[in-house]
Amino acid sequence: MLAALLVASVAAVPVRAQQASNPVVAERMRLMSDIGAASKIMGDMVSGRSAFDAARAAQAASTLAQLSSRVPDAFTANETDPASEALPSIWANWSTFTARADAMRTAAQNIDTSSEGGLRAGLAELGGACRACHTTFRE
Ligand code: HEC
């Protein structure tokens, strides 16, 4: 259920990165889009949109962990752009923000991609990590 919500929220988000004229903002938005794409590969498997494939899921989880570790660097500079949905509270609460990024990386690393049930449970955790940050730090 949570995984389905995750997929729905990712699918509903248009790619806005191209609309940001500030290159720093465009880059961090692209990073988030890539995080969304890696999540969607796995989400599609548990929602039945694609067949469960353990190797492909493991690859996506590993990509996601790597992308997650790039989040703090991508957001270090306090840059703005009209297309951005990032809230200024990120830079006022930097250690909380980076802790949420760490939590996403841990959730990605902990996903058991060997079975569909494991993937489903891992994605529920992951979806919680996405929401924990978006709720506080994204418009
Ligand atoms: C550490 C905080 C944090 C975590 C964790 C996080 N996000 Fe984000 N996300 C953001 C912020 C901040 C933005 C807005 C960036 C901007 O517009 O400048 C964003 C934007 C996005 C966007 C929109 C990108 C665009 O082109 O506008 C997508 C898609 C997204 N996140 C997916 C995810 C998914 C999926 C996860 C979990 C696997 C996740 N995010 C976890 C902070 C986070």
UniProtKB/TrEMBL annotation:
Record-linked Gene3D superfamilies: Cytochrome c/b562 (1.20.120.10)
Signal peptide limits: 1-17
Post-translational modification: Binds 1 heme group per subunit.
SUPFAM superfamilies according to UniProt: Cytochromes (SSF47175)
One of the record's GO cellular component terms: periplasmic space
Entry superkingdom: Bacteria
Magnesium listed as a keyword: no
Record key words, sorted: Electron transport, Heme, Iron, Metal-binding, Signal, Transport
Gene Ontology biological process: electron transport chain
Residue spans crossing the bilayer: none
GO MF, one annotated term: iron ion binding
Chain positions recorded as heme c binding sites: 130, 133-134
InterPro entries membership: Cyt_c/b562, Cyt_c_II, Cyt_c_prime
Entry protein name: Cytochrome c556
Organism: Roseicitreum antarcticum
Organism lineage string: Bacteria, Pseudomonadati, Pseudomonadota, Alphaproteobacteria, Rhodobacterales
